Amino acid sequence: MKVEQIYTSCLAEAAYYIHSNGEAAIIDPLRETAPYLERAERDHVKIKYIFLTHFHADFVSGHVDLAKKTGAQIVFGPGAKGDFDFYNGKDNEEFPVGDGIIKLLHTPGHTLESSTYLLIDKNKKDQCIFTGDTLFIGDVGRPDLAVKQGELTEKDLAKHLFHSLRDKIMPLPNDVIVYPNHGAGSACGKNMSKETFDTLGHQKEVNYALRADMTEAEFVKEVLTGLSKPPQYFSKNVMMNKGVNPEFDSIISQGTEALIFDFVSKKQKEGVLILDVRSQADFTKEHIAGSIFIGLNGQFAPWVGALIKDINQPIILICPEGKEEEAVKRLSRIGYDNAIGYLKGGVQTWKDNGGATDFIESISPEEFEAISEKEGGKINVLDVRKPGEYDSEHLINATNEPLDYLNENISNLDKDKTYYVHCAGGYRSVIFESIAKAAGIHHIIDVKEGFGGIKNKTKLDRKEFVCPSTLV
């Protein structure tokens, strides 16, 4: 049997394509069906099953579309409930695929229906496990996303997860390969490795959650410690994954329509969001007044999901030429299906028709250092990195205003003050500044290259955090 991991870096998500002797199975597909259909056509195989490890929170899956196009059976673990046709698999149930078997292991904890799929070859040898969000490389899935008011607490789910790992996964052979649904950068865990697969034996040695002598109480405490607030779109994606959504092809068709200036200008006045997905350098130089920036060259979809609260928000795109379809596709992966097109000719068309533009003043780390020294350090510096990054090391006079919480905290900013804004490398700061400007905060200056540039190119005073103790 052949296994291919299809890894999507901007979501830190892994789907899987497995085929053997004319039959194939897909595990945890993304919204778009083309990657799986193309592989099946290339290998002259029929997609027989679409396995879901759980109802995903951080992306919208393409299982319903894929099933319609292939006739494949959708399979979820025990207890799953959805508004489409699927099969509720049973614990230890086996599904033949070509010369091998995919065995469902019910592993609740991340969610109640969470399941791990064990691939067994024709010689009855356990080859690999597809663990979804139950077990990551270096971490385990967070148990706080499926909490139900009056029914389950995060501690209840953490206890389920403890026993799932020890009763179902850890007894498997050490040479079994672990294939998770996510890698570093995903908000579905807190300490994931940059590696996207490993042996189970090595994970037993290095993954804190698989420590052999760990008690249930220790596991619960450690798994729940340090969890950040989940992005606001997670619960919305779960609901979409339980329902039937617009077909991906129709979303692409609508979102890639070329629009003229008069239409875009009218829609902006009606409250349609103009989303600029070019590079941060292009945006700071000149952009449509009132538009916001989230560039395709960074963690585009997660930041859209974190910062654009209305998942049904109508969006008009400003794109680099030829990137329109990519932008719409990446929006749809997290359920933002209401892109209504892109402005043909972009910012230049807007200017040519008399539309107002704006810019963000941008300075180098060296210029920032000179200004800081001239003002005796008495300037307003906003560090928009995550709290953990800030705690690790930051400028002495910087205030932490994480981009993640900008919508909730924007009232903290004073329209009469001038702010110098930086992140780690220059991407998140421009997102922050664009939203602030759209909210009427205009005295804002971007520090290019972020904290990395400041650290490497200046001698400004910094404070490092020293951890007093380590959880064991």
Textual characterization of the structure:
The chain is 31% helix and 23% strand. It is an alpha/beta fold and 472 residues long. It folds into three domains: 233 residues, Metallo-beta-lactamase, Chain A, CATH 3.60.15.10; 113 residues, 3-Layer(aba) Sandwich (Oxidized Rhodanese, domain 1), CATH 3.40.250.10; 104 residues, 3-Layer(aba) Sandwich (Oxidized Rhodanese, domain 1), CATH 3.40.250.10. The strands form six sheets. Strands 1-2-3-4-5-6 form a six-stranded mixed sheet, with helices on one face. 46% of the residues are buried. The C terminus is likely disordered.
SSE topology:
Layout lengths: L1 E7 L4 E8 L2 E5 L6 H10 L2 E6 L11 H8 L2 E4 L10 E2 L5 E4 L2 E7 L8 E6 L5 E7 L21 H16 L7 E4 L17 E2 H7 L9 H9 L9 H8 L6 H8 L2 E2 L1 H9 L3 E4 L3 H6 L1 E2 L3 E2 L6 H8 L7 E4 L5 H9 L6 E5 L2 H7 L4 E2 L2 E3 L1 H10 L5 E4 L3 H6 E3 L2 E3 L5 H4 L9 E4 L5 H11 L5 E4 L2 H8 L4 E3 L8
Parallel strand pairs: 3-4, 4-5, 5-6, 10-11, 13-18, 14-16, 14-17, 17-18, 20-25, 21-23, 21-24, 24-25
Antiparallel strand pairs: 1-2, 2-3, 7-8, 8-9, 9-10, 11-12, 15-19, 22-26
Helix pairs in contact: 3-5, 7-11, 13-17
InterPro entries: Metallo-B-lactamas, Mito_Persulfide_Diox, POD-like_MBL-fold, Rhodanese-like_dom, Rhodanese-like_dom_sf, RibonucZ/Hydroxyglut_hydro
Pfam family, one: Lactamase_B
Keywords: Hydrolase, Metal-binding
